[in-house]
Specification:
Blueprint (H helix, E strand, L loop, with lengths): L2 E5 L2 E4 L4 E8 L6 E8 L5 E8 L5 E3 L7 E6 L4 E6 L8 E9 L7 E2 L3 E6 L1
Parallel strand pairs: 2-11
Antiparallel strand pairs: 1-3, 3-8, 4-5, 4-9, 5-6, 7-8, 9-10, 9-11
Length: 119
């Protein structure tokens, strides 16, 4: 059973930084893709960034490119999202997600962690 546990959210002022962590367990993640999504109040869940577990190839939403960095630690089975230059519009619940390569949807999700950026 795949389990994803996020941590690291909190309240930060605009311009500040936070690092989110996603501890993954339940299997080996060879040939899997890990991602971060976020959902602001009253809005749909949006893609933020993804990373291929094997190759480390990364993709970012345009809104966070050059401010956020996704990375993984294979030894710890953990994915990180370093968020710099935070803006009030980054306020959302951030979710970690996982899927196998070749699968279109992300079937595995964490419980989410709240990020609030004050102006």
């Amino acid at each position: 059973q795949v389990q994803l546990d996020e941590s690291g959210g909190g309240l930060v002022q605009a311009g500040g930084s936070l690092r989110l962590s996603c501890a993954a367990s339940g299997r080996t993640f060879t040939n899997w893709k890990m991602a971060w999504f976020r959902q602001a109040p009253g809005k749909e869940r949006d893609f933020v960034a993804s990373i291929a577990w094997n190759s480390g190839n990364v993709y970012y939403a345009e809104s966070v490119r050059d401010r956020f960095t996704i990375s993984r630690d294979n030894a710890k089975n953990t994915v990180y999202l370093q968020m710099n230059s935070l803006k009030p519009e980054d306020t959302a619940v951030y979710y970690c997600a996982a899927r196998r390569f070749g699968v279109d949807q992300y079937p595995y999700w964490g419980q989410g962690t709240q990020v609030t950026v004050s102006s």
